[in-house]
Design brief:
mainly alpha, single chain, about 180 residues, about 0% strand
């Protein structure tokens, strides 16, 4: 019997990938639950405040189902990647960065908390250029903050930095109007 006559073994269940798929499905369920809690005024004719959360939830459900099917077929990682050990130190820096953002956003404001998170996550991914990472994080955080605060009118956590910049912006606007 030749090797071409032998059948390939059936794909094994990829448990970590399956857990990711089910985790994403649980997140989609949380989005649906929270979206159902949004009050919808009868003044909205077709597009209300729940349209985009439902679109997001639908995308999450589709993606999670695709991930679950892929995990049942053996996973989406190549075999050589499955043998690579997890870098727990790097994972720790990423988790610490996310937790730091959660804890620091109230006392420090969105920008400062986001810069700290950005630097920690960059360090977890291997960057050792702290100043560059902090400046990049500052630019991205300020763009996000002012995009939400100025363009959309949504306060996502003003702190010292945001308040000082808002004062400068207001004084420049008042000088230009005069």
């Amino acid at each position: 019997m030749s090797t071409s006559d032998q059948q390939a073994p059936p794909p094994r269940l990829a448990v970590p990938e399956l857990l990711i798929g089910f985790g994403l499905l649980a997140c989609a369920a949380a989005v649906a639950w929270q979206t159902l809690a949004i009050p919808v005024s009868p003044l909205y004719s077709k597009v209300g405040p729940t349209v985009f959360p439902y679109i997001t939830m639908t995308g999450m459900v589709i993606l999670s189902l695709l991930l679950i099917v892929a995990a049942l077929r053996g996973g989406w990682q190549p075999e050589e990647e499955k043998e690579t050990p997890t870098d727990w130190k790097a994972m720790g820096f990423v988790v610490i960065g996310l937790i730091a953002n959660l804890v620091l956003i109230q006392p420090l404001g969105f920008t400062a908390a986001s810069v700290i998170m950005f630097v920690l996550i960059c360090y977890g991914f291997g960057s050792r250029h702290t100043l560059r990472d902090a400046l990049t994080g500052l630019i991205l955080a300020l763009a996000a903050y002012f995009g939400f605060a100025r363009a959309l009118g949504v306060n996502i956590g003003a702190g010292f930095i945001e308040n000082q910049l808002n004062t400068v912006i207001e004084s420049i606007i008042s000088m230009l109007r005069a």
